[in-house]
Fold each of these.
Amino acid sequence: MQVTASAPGKAILFGEHAVVYGKPAIAMALSKRAQVKVTGRLDKKIQVNIRDLGIKEYINLKENIVTSNSPEKGILKYVLNSVKSVHQESGLDIYIDVNVPIGGGLGSSAAVTVALIAAVSKYNNIDLKKKEIARLAHKVELEVQNYASPLDTIISTYGGLIYLKDAKKIISLDINHDIPVVIGFTDSGGNTMCSTDTGKLVGAVKIRKESYPEIINPVIGSIEALTIEAKEAILNNDKKRIGELMNINHGLLDALGVNTLELSNMVYTARVAGASGSKITGAGGGGSIISFCPEGTEEVIAALKKIENAFKSDISKDGVKTTLKEVR
Ligand code: PMV
């Protein structure tokens, strides 16, 4: 038996960091998807091939280790914990193509985790509902990273465009128009999964909030207000407002202290090249930007590629998908 599964990466359009304080956020599933394939083997080993990173390793569920135990192969921790959550003994060959840029706040670890949990559970004839896949995947992210909001794993599981109300209630925004975006990201070229950076940045914002409560609390309140406004702008396809609100959100993220020179460069390069709005996406401190490009997509991609890397994405309506095939 062979099971394949895929799950999308994500980008936060509005509300990152404020969501940590119970405020709303808007996120979308990206067109880039992690792909996994699971087949059985005659021995009891579990071999993991991550093709785009050139990784070929064994994981040992009983002893909870990766054979190399090499820290730079952080992605294998997600793989180990994901497989463990739905599998016990028999041997497996696991093939993974991450496809989503790694370590840049685009939900690569969540996409791999969600796809793996879906594939391995299906291989074991366990019928997991999406809610359960999202729950298990979030648990894996917490185990590996210590800190993780459920946003990445929710988007990877359900796909589409999601408004997370009060940081917990999932409201799917069903729109008939597209939200064309360009993602700019730093091509680190490494093969790690950043497992601690988000936690560190969330911690840094907390310190700033505690040091300047009268200044930072209103900033977080403003992010809340603009996210609520952005939801209406998106539903009404008000492109001008969507772009403006993104720009305001970027300024407020800068005030929270998560901007960097390289992110700023990308944000302004995208605007100069024609994006209606652009901002940091995700935790910041490096990583990625998102720009809203109802027009001039190619120009924005070309300009970003001159300094870093970029790709175009639409909202992927599909969340996690699995296919089962009998192989002889
Ligand atoms: O960079 P990411 O994808 O890990 O996004 C983090 C978003 C935060 O709001 C900063 C934290 C969170 O878990 O929601």
Amino acid sequence: MLLKEKTAVVTGSENGIGKAIVSSFLENGAEVIGLDLQAEDGRVLGYEYRRADVSDMGACEDVISRIYAEHEKIDILVNCAGITRDAMTRKMTEEQFDEVVAVNLKGVWNVTRLVGPKMQAEHGGSIINISSVVGIYGNIGQVNYAATKAGVIGMTKTWAKEFALKDGNVRVNAVAPGYTLTDMLKTVPQELLDRFAGQTMLGRLAKPEEIAAAVLFLASDMSSYITGEVLNVNGGMRL
Ligand code: NAP
């Protein structure tokens, strides 16, 4: 029960890595509020769910203010919502570039700007941003995605400094997963997935639960002296 009496907000909660994070937080005693694009608000499977598009600043302001009206504080924020719109640079449209920036980069800012300063005023909190191995090494056909995932690391390091000011005591870290078996990979040909697995030291892709375990560590007091870091969870991958 590493997160007993903690309240956590997880974006992208209804699928893949976000879903695994929600399960692991619930198993560890947290009160969880999931934000995602699907379905209607409600309480499902032991946690609260709110429909919110993280790329929409007004929607974020609305949902976060409702959460603060109903909960004393938010102790943990995980920015996990993310999308891909892959294409080689010569073929990538402006729309593909802008969509990925809107969700993966601005979406992280839209939510964190509302939660981070409040955590700082409360003198405590942990924020975990989901980056990617692609944000560190780059990847063919993913210039938009790589830019956002590298940008998330810049935001993480900046917020680790900002939200620690005035005894803020807010830790901000990133997790950079390698290729993880979720819907995000469903359009990637098996041959390419096999090649990615071959590029890891462990010879396989990640399970969402393995990424969630790293997020749990950073969310909990087990990591109480870790901030401004990027935790690579990629099986020893070098792209
Ligand atoms: P996923 O299975 O596609 O789940 C992403 C979730 O985010 C979905 O439920 C999706 O909803 C939601 N979402 C998308 N746009 C949103 C928006 N504007 N507002 C709120 N929610 C939104 O992907 P995943 O693999 O779990 O990825 C989770 C995070 O890990 C992402 O940030 C991704 O970049 C990162 N990551 C993934 C991998 C990988 O190999 N899978 C590797 C490194 C990093 P819909 O289903 O309705 O679109």
